[in-house]
Specification:
Radius of gyration: 32 Å
Order of helices and strands: HHHHHEEHEEEHHEEEHEHHHEHHHHH
Largest sheet: 7 strands, mixed
Number of helices: 17
Distance between the termini: 89 Å
Structural class: alpha+beta
Strand order of the largest sheet: 2-1-7-8-4-10-3
């Protein structure tokens, strides 16, 4: 058996010599990072989430000049809304509807009961759900003093603005200065690659900056349009949104158009340059292929610079996507469409006090109908209590009661329950008087 000498074996080894990537030479025979795969697939979900909110913020459309990761996922998502056979072949699957990009298809609104027209909607538009979540998230309730069994939050909204039927949902959300971090990182890493004469890495960073910037301009041109059926007679549209699940009641006070856009509104994306979406997706695919092929040809230093630009951009995209899309849409709807209406939010400890408070604020045409829907109890004690409360509300009497009242209405074993019910009603009335004082002084909770 032949055994080679140690000296001959060492002579035949290929040693890692001075031909290092950091020296500016080609990296063909040196260590190479898999930056092409990182550029294509790393951070895809985060990049898509950040891109799908660009329609809502007008400033972000012009601030996309940075080398962003996740080009494959962005190309796949937007390539499916075009009619290109090439893109349908590259990204097979069910074509994506424009409305699907908004993320509102699975959002269902709560029940609506009109105060004057008698309209009852068992399910309303996604915008009523966004409004309810926005109120619960941003408004701290004022607690009305009463006993507590089943606390219910009541938000009163005075709608003073009538949105147009083709309103564009767009308002500034993110501070523009935040985009300077990925932009400066991409410019700095590109300049560093140019100084060390790594033109492969330099050109790939510049290509990523140009493609992402162009994509943001084209995709950001899409308008988030609100549409709703215009009522025949634009009279008072007062009513309530009721969520049994969340223990929430929203009292809407305003004209029919304002309330209708909340209850029956729908949204879609309208692109000014629909055909340019196809070319953006093709450009993203081109960037993906070129970066996979050419980035390994750069030096180790250039590849590190390329990864650095992607990392900073990924962090920026992560920050953009960290804010829930529904929260953003709710803010845009309240600020951009409803134009920041006046809000008051209260918390009442029992369902009875919450319903009486709602009737006092709403002043419906048929209070008995709403009272029976929200409090379906029909025992003799409850029926007597309801009749007395309704009579006092219709005649604008104070809801203040002496002991003799429940002694006369419910002598004997029903006295304890009657006392609790009238105590709830009186607490609701006191809370209503406090609300009138706040509304007269223009004091809002938002």
């Amino acid at each position: 058996m032949f055994i080679p000498q140690v000296s001959n074996a060492l002579d035949r080894r290929t040693l890692y010599s001075g031909n290092a990537p950091l020296s500016g030479q080609s990296n063909s025979y040196g260590f190479s990072l898999d930056t092409g795969g990182m550029a294509s697939f790393f951070g895809g979900d985060v990049a898509v989430t950040a891109m799908t909110t660009i329609h809502l913020d007008p400033t972000r459309r012009w601030l996309g000049w940075y080398n962003s990761p996740g080009t494959y996922e962005v190309a796949r998502r937007y390539g499916r809304i075009s009619d290109s056979r090439l893109l349908q072949g590259l990204f097979p699957g069910v074509p994506t509807d424009l409305a699907t990009l908004l993320g509102l298809e699975g959002l269902k609104g709560t029940k609506y009961i009109a105060a004057h027209s008698g309209t009852i909607l068992e399910e309303t538009s996604p915008f009523s759900a966004l409004l309810m979540k926005n109120c619960a998230r941003h408004l701290d309730p004022i607690e009305i003093h009463c006993r507590k069994t089943q606390p219910i939050a009541i938000t009163i909204i005075e709608l003073e603005h009538s949105p147009s039927n083709q309103a564009v949902l767009r308002t500034s959300i993110y501070p523009p200065i935040a985009a300077s971090a990925p932009i400066l990182a991409s410019i700095g890493t590109a300049v560093a690659c140019g100084v060390f004469r790594d033109w492969f890495s330099f050109s790939m960073i510049v290509l990523g900056v140009l493609v992402n910037g162009i994509s943001c301009i084209v995709i950001g041109a899409g308008e988030f349009i609100l549409q709703y059926p215009i009522p025949h007679v634009d009279g008072p549209g007062d009513g309530i949104l009721v969520s049994e699940k969340d223990k929430e009641i929203i009292v809407l006070k305003g004209n029919g158009s304002s309330v209708c856009c909340i209850n029956s509104g729908s949204a879609t994306l309208r692109f000014r340059w629909q055909r340019w979406i196809k070319w953006c997706a093709i450009l993203l695919v081109f960037q993906l292929i070129v970066q996979i092929l050419l980035i390994p040809q750069g030096t180790l230093f250039g590849q590190i610079m390329f990864i650095g630009s992607l990392t900073v951009s990924w962090g920026y995209n992560l920050w953009l996507s960290s804010k829930n899309k529904e929260n953003i849409q709710g803010e845009v709807f309240v600020r951009g469409v409803l134009r920041c209406p006046r809000f008051w939010r209260y918390s009442l400890g029992t369902r009875t006090s919450a319903v009486v408070f709602t009737l006092l604020v709403l002043k419906p045409k048929d209070p008995r109908k709403i009272l029976n829907m929200l409090l379906p109890n029909d025992t003799p004690v409850w029926l007597k209590f309801k009749d007395d409360i309704l009579s006092r509300i219709r005649t604008n009497q104070e809801l203040r009661f002496e002991t003799s009242v429940w002694d006369a209405l419910a002598p004997g074993p029903d006295k304890a329950l009657t006392e609790l019910l009238y105590g709830d009603a009186e607490a609701a009335y006191n809370g209503y008087l406090d609300h009138l004082a706040r509304s007269d002084t223009k004091d809002t909770s938002l």
